[in-house]
Amino acid sequence: MGRLIGLLPTVAAFVAFILSILCLFAGTQKNLLSSADILTLYTSTVGNGTEAHDFYSIHVMTYCEGFMNSKEERNLTGCSKRSMLFSFDPSEVLLEETGNTTSLDRLGWPSAISEDFRAFKITYQSLGVFYCIGVGLAGLAILVRLFFMLFRRTRQSAIELASLLIGFVMISIASIITTVIMFQFVNLVNYHGEASDVSAKHGREFLAMSWAAAGLLLVGSVASLAMVLVDRGRAEEEPPSPPPRPDTPKSEMAGDAESIKSAKSKY
User: Fold this and answer.
1) Is residue 228, in this structure, part of any structural domain at all?
2) Cα separation, 42 vs 24, whole angstroms
3) How many Å apart are CA 138 and CA 133, to the nearest integer?
4) Contact, 34 vs 25, CB < 8 A?
């Protein structure tokens, strides 16, 4: 039972590591959790008759695009190249796809939405950095525990605790930014795109994975902290070890020297 409790921080870190990896790399390929997006921008009424897509599914490091079928189901056609400092610029994408080198006004695209995305550019670019740091720290916590297991050390390490705690902070910050983007930013896009029938919708699957990873790292941090305190308390209660006994040859020589001294004193 004690061993199972001792592995709780490692198990929590492992599951959080997997979830954070999925958040980071979702949408980097068509068949890799493309439905787990942060938000989807629907532009089906913009530039009818051109090459613009019906929707753009925006992830942490990429965006995917496609068309809607007659059943209002999404049909992905491809995804962009991944970038750690990724941010989506709808004006740039639409200009490239439609071949319009001057302005998107004639296509019915509201310029206010482009300004919204530019305003959130730096904030959005930070997502990849926070998730990457969180993934690295969760992985470090796992490696530290495996290292100590190889050397048969059962006590919790301060390095493991620090990795879990800082990892929790990083993933939590990323989750908070994602939550703001999903709700506040999506509402802003819907407000500015209402007249042009441009809309956005947030992704629940991604948000659930991100907060689940943060929650697991918090559980692992609390469990690791509790075990570090318990181990420290046990170390303080242990009595000091007795000094090493002198080896036999030295004690025998000391005894012979005392015998010689006593014999000389008699004479």
Assistant:
1) yes
2) 23
3) 9
4) no
Going by pLDDT thresholds of 50, 70 and 90, the confidence category of residue 109 is confident
- Counting Cα atoms < 13 Å in the Cβ hemisphere of 5 gives 10
DSSP state for residue 242 in the 8-state scheme: P
For the whole prediction, is pTM greater than 0.85? no
DSSP 183: I
Within a domain: 168 = yes
Structure tokens of 154? 């059962």
**Does residue 166 sit within a domain?**
yes
Rounded Cα gap, residues 37 and 20, in angstroms: 14
Domain count, the chain: 1
Average pLDDT, rounded, for the chain: 80
The closest alpha carbon to 207, from 181, 173, 183, 175, belongs to: 175
196-215 confidence digits (pLDDT tens): 788 888 888 999 999 999 99
What are the residue ranges of helices labelled H in the chain?
A: 2-6, 8-25, 90-98, 111-119, 121-150, 158-180, 186-193, 204-237, 248-266
The whole domain housing 70 covers 1-234
DSSP state of 106: G
Contact 24, 34 (CB under 8 A): no
| CATH number of the CATH domain containing 198 | 1.20.140.150
Cβ–Cβ under 8 Å, residues 203 and 118 = no
DSSP state at residue 105? G
Report the pLDDT value the prediction gives residue 233, as an integer from 0 to 100.
Answer: 58
Q: Annotate 143-171 with DSSP letters as a single string.
A: HHHHHHHHTT--SPPHHHHHHHHHHHHHH
Report the sign of the C-alpha dihedral through residues 178, 183, 184, 190, in that order: positive
Per the domain annotation, does 243 fall within a domain? no
